[in-house]
Amino acid sequence: MRAAFPSSARLALITTAALTLLLAVTGCGGPGDNEEVVGTSTPTPAISASATSIFQLSPGQCFDRPAAEGLYEVAVVPCEVSHDLEMYALFQLDEPSWPGGDRVHELADAGCREQFAVFTGSQAADSDLGYTMYTPSEGSWSEGDRQVQCALQLNSGGRMIGSQMAGPAAG
Question: How many whole angstroms separate alpha carbon 127 and alpha carbon 119?
Fold first, then answer.
């Protein structure tokens, strides 16, 4: 017959075992006596990134992806440094009532594709760049949200350096 642990004791035992295993597997700790710590002779300059709601961004602003799906706070960074995305267009959908998720996606895609060429000077199909869209949800639509945001990204999934804006105002 096995002895039954009270649930709080069982939880403490499981937590302790899990933490011990985690520390053993990840090898947490500092460098050992035989390990060399390598540094750079010139410190890397700190990049100033500010956390901003993705819904507050304007075309031409560069930023990194949200930390997790469903989060809308992003790190806005200067376009001259490595970044994931660049906002390139904002526009409003004209539908008076919720047209459904598929229709919102269709309208957003058409608008983002059109604005892609205006911003970059090339067609999306002929570019190493792609785009992602931020669209209203049914819930935000009922609160009056009609805004679509379009952001450039590399098709390879890599990071960009510099603005992708075409023309004399390009950075």
Answer: 13
> Taking the model in full, what pTM does it have?
0.67
Structure confidence by residue, pLDDT tens digits, 44-66: 344 456 788 999 999 999 999 98
* Residue of 164, 141, 167 whose CA lies nearest to 154: 164
Give tens-digit pLDDT for 73-112: 999 999 999 999 999 999 999 999 999 999 999 999 999 9
Among 149, 145, 153, 147, smallest CA distance to 128 is for 153
Query: Contact, 96 vs 67, CB < 8 A?
Result: no
Nearest by Cα to 54 from 135, 163, 119, 160? 135
- Residue 63 φ/ψ, nearest 5 degrees: -160, 165
Calculate ∠ Cα 41-45-48, nearest 5°. 165
For the chain, what are the domain ranges? Answer: 50-154
